[in-house]
Amino acid sequence: MNTVNWAILAPGNIARSFATALQGVDKAKLYSVASRQPEKAMAFAHEFGFETSAKSFADLLADPRVDVIYIASPHAFHAAQSIACLEAGKAVLCEKPMTLNAIQARHVFDVAKRRNLFYMEAVWTRFMPVLAQLRKWLDEGAIGEVEMVQANFCFSMPFDASHRMFDKSLGGGALLDLGIYPITFAQWLMQQAPTQVAATGVIGKSGVDEKNIVTLKYPNGVLASLTSGATANASNDAWIFGSKGKIKIPDFWHCQEAMLFRDDAQPVGHISIPHRINGYEYEIEEVHRCLKAGLIESPDMSWQESLGVMAIMDQVRGQIGLEYQADLDKP
Predict the structure, then answer these.
(1) Are 154 and 252 in contact (CB under 8 A)?
(2) What DSSP character marks residue 262?
(3) Per-residue pLDDT of the chain (331 residues; tens, 9 = 90+)
(4) What is the spatial distance between Cα 303 and Cα 306, in angstroms, rounded to a whole number?
(5) Which residue from 189, 181, 185 is spatially nearest to 147, judged by alpha carbons?
(6) In whole angstroms, what is the distance from residue 259 CA to residue 251 CA?
(7) DSSP assignment letter at 252
(8) Order of strands across the sheet that contains 4-9
(9) Which of 51, 101, 148, 232 is the most buried (most CB within 10 A)?
């Protein structure tokens, strides 16, 4: 495979981390950047060593040298921007959540399929090496049968109506920004749709959820208790409880280790795989692998998996009373 020319749309904070990883990935070329503010794109390109910057999103789409566009804009723009990129013939890696609801997600995938172009939701956790080793423990029966799952992703931040976390027009709220991580973790673990979704949450003064608790029940009786919030600090660990032991994944959303326990307090197994760069390199390498293989979706982060998580979040929002304008609009 030749060098892959990467472009970044919306050079904000998460794009900075992504660009840092791009610098260290083999065959990844930092090619172009686009922003609503051309001067911001130019400064970002200069800082990270991109070959050029685009004067506008339209100019970026028209550039024949762009191979893949990483979309790092606020959630509310993901669906329309993904479709525009695909229609322009560009492969896409879109930051999570890929859309605001499942209807939008299906529309994006329909376009990707029609255009025969690669598309993947950028849930970076899914590609971290610790998970592959953890799966081996589970397949070997290291904790017996899985019975329960717990995962938290919460932090406390001061209320700021202008911040995307609290801005309903941008798809704000704890669920889509943070809750997608524990839900995706549970879905990765169980590899099937839950039979029951139960949720409760608190809608803040900005009209978005500030915290929520989601319980998933699976066909085999496994229960998952998942929390996310922007107003309270938490351990942000994940636990898998089995009939013969348990596994702890500290800070599971950017996991770099896991511990296996039996009945005592001391772990009997330990996985430690520090990020080679900052964690974003693994999803970048997955995009390269899929492009080289001529795939339009990743077998490790399939369209069906993204749709499954989005469908769960749609149900959660319905139960906690969180509705976006996109839920009322036709795709």
Answers:
(1) no
(2) S
(3) 689 999 999 999 999 999 999 999 999 999 999 999 999 999 999 999 999 999 999 999 999 999 999 999 999 999 999 999 999 999 999 999 999 999 999 999 999 999 999 999 999 999 999 999 999 999 999 999 999 999 999 999 888 888 889 999 999 999 999 999 999 999 999 999 999 999 999 999 999 999 999 999 999 999 999 999 999 888 899 999 999 999 999 999 999 999 999 977 789 999 999 999 999 999 999 999 999 999 999 999 999 999 999 999 999 999 999 999 999 886 5
(4) 5
(5) 189
(6) 12
(7) G
(8) 28-34, 4-9, 68-71, 91-95, 119-122
(9) 101
* DSSP conformation letters of 277-328: SSSTHHHHHHHHHHHHHT-SSBTTB-HHHHHHHHHHHHHHHHHHT---GGGT
Q: Do the Cβ atoms of 28 and 6 come closer than 8 Å?
A: yes
Gyration radius of the chain's alpha carbons: 20
Report residue 295 as tokens. 């795939």
User: pTM, whole model, 2 decimals?
Assistant: 0.96
SS3 assignment, position 29: strand
Long-range contacts of 22-27 (CB under 8 A, 24+ apart): 22/48, 22/280, 22/284, 23/48, 23/49, 23/277, 24/276, 24/277, 24/281, 25/277, 25/281, 25/284, 25/285, 25/288, 27/1, 27/2, 27/3, 27/288
Q: How far apart are the first and last CA of the chain?
A: 36
**Cross-strand partners of 159:** none
**Residue 58: how many CB atoms within 10 A of its CB?**
12
